[in-house]
Design brief:
The chain is mainly α. It is built from 8 helices and no strands.
Length: 148
């Protein structure tokens, strides 16, 4: 199942179907897990924040959000690069919603109350991959910081 998802996300499937909403959710969830793991520490506050972001974004019950995160953890661990997730999101999500993705990523990065260098660096790489400008990413970070 995981290899099927990775093949769909990467476009390497022999008969690729259009990316469906569930795969787009998985791509975002895996990207959230990847940013949380970027500093080598994957703490419970980050997992909780990912669950909250997924629950809020997709109107999921807490157990559904946790299940999506758990699936995303496996997908993220098996995916060789970040490009698969960003491409899937960029190709299937409107720009305004991609800014929301950046906010969700900043929300996870700032879950522990500090900006870790590795997480910060990865997010600065991801924003342009999603086609989001530095300015809009900065504004998204400020909105997240003001809510904290």
């Amino acid at each position: 199942m995981i290899s099927d998802i990775l093949n769909r996300l990467s476009g390497h499937d022999a008969n690729p179907d259009p990316l469906d909403a569930d795969d787009a959710r998985r791509a975002l969830a895996a990207l959230l897990v990847r940013i949380a793991r970027a500093d080598g520490t994957y703490a419970s506050d980050e997992m909780t924040r990912i669950d909250r972001v997924l629950g809020s974004r997709y109107d999921l019950a807490p157990f559904e959000a946790a299940a999506l995160r758990a699936e995303a953890e496996t997908i993220e661990a098996e995916a060789p690069d970040t490009v698969r997730f960003t491409r899937a999101i960029k190709d299937h999500v409107a720009y305004e919603d991609r800014i929301g993705v950046i906010e969700a990523l900043w929300d996870v990065v700032l879950a522990d109350g500090k900006r870790d260098e590795e997480e910060d660096s990865l997010l600065r790489m991801i924003a342009p991959m999603l086609g989001v400008t530095d300015r809009d990413s900065n504004l998204a970070r400020r909105r997240v910081e003001s809510r904290s």
